Amino acid sequence: GGRVLLAKLKVDPNLNDSGLRHVALQGEDLVTLGTAGVHVYASAARRWTTLAAQEPTAHFAETDGRRLLVGLPDSFLVISDGEVARRTTLEAPLRQILPGAGAEVFGLDDRGRVLKLDGETAQVLAQADPGAPPDARFTRAAAVGSLFVALGPDGILVHDSAARRYSFTPAAALPPLPVSDALLVPGQGRLWIVSQRSGDVRSLKIAGDFPAKQLSVESHGSAARAVARARADGAGLTLVAADGTLLQLASPEAQIVPQVGPGLPEGLRPVSMAASGAAYFFASKDRLWLYNQDQRGWLGPMAAPEGGAGLADIAIAGDRLLG
């Protein structure tokens, strides 16, 4: 019984029942976990061996006792037959251990990351990026490829919904941006940022890795007037001013140029815009206008499609204009 066993041992003073957390029987050997670390008692040799002097932070004992999975502050151990069968290096202590299929083992560390613990070093399966401060406010947002980008007075948040990664850049690390009245237009490799009040045009480029994405802001001049609509056009940008003027930025390196042509018979206050080739359609309430970029001329106003009174948006599908 237990009394006979203890009588035969020279017990380490740290090995006492007050600090003992778990005992597993593997063959004829006893493996103990406690405040003194991880120890094994070999019944044949009648002696204790220290497998680890650190206090475990997490453990999982399989039902048959053949494997004991132990998390230490800097490593993960698989203990089998009273010996360390595998050791995996950790960057942070484990909080929870969960065995998978076969030899797979997963863990959750105190940084909130999900790890795969099958090799010499832990593989990060899911990061736990801090994201934005809890009191951060955002006023504008747009999808840029696979990324979700949100702008606000406190900074810019970049989120990859598929990878569940976040990166936040505080406003103090960026040049001033028109976050309160910005039109956000995804473009080729950048996000266009247009001030509706002033017509100033900037673009945001995103590089680097999570959680420290590198953001760079470029200035592209100004339309020098209020802007109602903006649309990405190839590598550039097309703007519709509040006074009906059409302007174009052919490329990020070009200047903003008005597309001069015959004036409109009346002011244009568009609510939506659609384009097909060189033709730009503009909708305003129950009327439509067409601007031909090649001819630099306007056509309209035209009646909206049947049932299109009070248009809120228009779109082109094939050879049809939908409203």
Written overview of the protein:
- The model is unreliable at 1-8 (pLDDT under 50).
- Helices cover 2% and strands 51% of the residues.
- The chain is mostly beta strands and 323 residues long.
- The radius of gyration is 33 Å and the shape is elongated.
- The longest helix is centred in the first third of the chain and has 6 residues, at 2-7.
Outline the secondary-structure elements.
Layout: H1 2-7, E1 20-26, E2 29-34, E3 37-42, E4 47-52, E5 58-61, E6 68-71, E7 75-80, E8 83-89, E9 94-99, E10 105-109, E11 114-116, E12 123-126, E13 140-144, E14 147-152, E15 155-160, E16 165-170, E17 182-186, E18 191-195, E19 200-207, E20 214-222, E21 227-233, E22 236-241, E23 246-249, E24 256-258, E25 272-276, E26 279-284, E27 287-292, E28 297-303, E29 315-317, E30 320-322
Antiparallel strand pairs: 1-2, 2-3, 3-4, 5-6, 6-7, 7-8, 9-10, 10-11, 11-12, 13-14, 14-15, 15-16, 17-18, 18-19, 19-20, 21-22, 22-23, 23-24, 25-26, 26-27, 27-28, 29-30
How is this structure best summarized?
This protein has 323 residues and is an all-beta fold.
- Total count of helical runs of at least 4 residues: 1
Structural class by secondary-structure content: mainly beta
How does the major sheet shape up?
4 strands, antiparallel
CA-based gyration radius: 33 Å
Spatial arrangement of strands, main beta sheet: 1-2-3-4
| Coarse shape | elongated
Give the end-to-end Cα distance, rounded to a whole number of Å. Answer: 86 Å
Regions with pLDDT < 50 over 5+ consecutive residues?
A: 1-8
- Residue share in helices? under 10%
Strand content: over 45%
Query: Can you give the mean pLDDT?
Result: 84
**Tally of DSSP β-strands:** 30
